[in-house]
Design goal:
The chain has about 325 residues and is mostly beta strands. It has one domain (about 5-10, about 25-330). The protein has two helices and 22 strands. The chain has helices at about 5-10, 325-330, and strands at about 25-30, 40-50, 55-60, 65-70, 75-80, 85, 90-95, 95-105, 105-115, 140-160, 160-165, 170-175, 185-190, 200-210, 210-225, 225-230, 235-245, 245-255, 260-270, 270-275, 285-305, 305-325. Strands 1, 2, 3, 4, 5, 6, 7, 8, 9, 10, 11 and 12 form a twelve-stranded antiparallel beta sheet that branches. Strand 14 (about 200-210) and strand 15 form a beta hairpin. The longest helix has 5 residues, at about 5-10. The mean pLDDT is about 95.
Length: about 325
């Protein structure tokens, strides 16, 4: 078995070796072609509980169709010294994805390569997006960002429709642990028209902690080579968080990138497809996800009472999930 510290410092790797059940792990590949007509999320993973199996989920963000392709557990393989996962005849790494799914209801052949990706930085004190919480061995759910933004090369054919993804944009993240949270908001976009390479990832959830739980959040804006982090573990604060109809308004402040900053996000939901999410018992959570949401983002530096804008942009083709919103998720405790 690998040492615990090796796994923590490599969030992209498979974490399931030697884990007690229940356990799940899934990698999320967002794929958008250069015409933006074709939008997909591909999610390979493994579920270890009362019904152990491997899977590949597919979300067509344009049609909202979803598919859950189930595989026997013996058809799942993961390297123990790098991020490389096989599910059936499909293969996944941080640099490439190949799909061979041949089912009566769904056929996909894909050979895609990724260039220029950059993960959330890893250090001893903050090994990835989880910060120091990554060292806590009893968290319900862990999260990782493997590529904020990258260029896609290659083709994908779905049910005889051939699509060229060359010069499209992609994003990769992952989750692992015992179960998804009871309530959360998740948002991601790396399609800012006048700022290629800029990427926003943001999530807030109810986190079990010993005999209670708390509202935890992690937000990262990657812009012009700088990562602006707003998170519970950095001491950042949520000034405003509201969900009204199809719109989400979230304002955060905190010290990041050497100064105090404010980040405002106004997101609008798009039509969603329904994905499966893990509980401790089964993959029974119904998770509504859109790949056609939008997010207006404003980042500013707070200096001497002044608000100095750094970046203002409108992120398109955003992935957005709003699950089981409760008052405690919207109200600071």
């Amino acid at each position: 078995m690998r040492p615990f510290w090796t796994t923590v410092l490599n969030p992209a790797w498979y974490h399931g070796f030697g884990q007690k059940r229940p356990f799940f792990e899934g990698w999320y590949f967002k794929l958008i072609d250069p015409t933006t007509q074709h939008k997909y999320a591909i999610i390979p993973g493994v579920f270890l509980s009362e019904d152990p199996h491997a899977f590949i989920q597919v979300l067509n963000g344009s049609t909202k169709e979803t598919f859950y392709h189930r595989y026997p557990l013996e058809q799942f393989w993961a390297a123990d010294d790098r991020f490389e996962v096989h599910v059936g005849a499909s293969r996944f790494t941080a640099r490439a994805l190949s799909l061979l799914i041949d089912r009566p209801e769904h056929k996909i052949v894909a050979d895609l390569q990724f260039g220029g990706g950059r993960p959330w930085p890893v250090s001893l004190t903050a090994p990835g997006i989880m910060g120091w919480y990554a060292w806590v061995p009893t968290m319900e759910c862990y999260h990782g960002v493997l590529s904020f933004d990258h260029t896609i090369y290659g083709t994908m054919t779905v049910d005889s429709q051939a699509m060229d993804f060359t010069n499209g944009r992609g994003y990769i993240e992952k989750d692992w642990g015992q179960s998804f949270p009871s309530a959360w908001i998740w948002l991601q976009t790396n399609h800012f028209a006048h700022s290629p390479g800029t990427s926003l990832t943001a999530s807030i959830a109810m986190i079990p902690w010993q005999f209670t739980r708390f509202r935890g959040f992690i937000v990262g804006l990657w812009h012009e080579g700088v990562l602006y982090k707003f998170a519970t573990y950095t001491g950042a604060k949520t000034e405003t968080l509201t969900v009204a109809g199809e719109q989400i308004h979230w304002v955060l402040t905190g010290k990041t990138a050497g100064a105090r900053h404010r980040l405002e996000i106004i997101a609008s939901r798009g039509e969603a497809g329904i994905l499966a999410g893990p509980s401790t018992v089964d993959m029974g959570k119904r998770v509504a996800e859109s790949l056609t949401a939008t997010a207006t983002v404003r980042l500013s530096r707070l200096v001497g009472g002044r608000d100095e804008p750094i970046f203002v942009g409108n992120g398109r083709f955003a992935g957005l999930e709003v699950h089981n919103i409760a008052e405690e998720l919207l109200t600071e405790k």
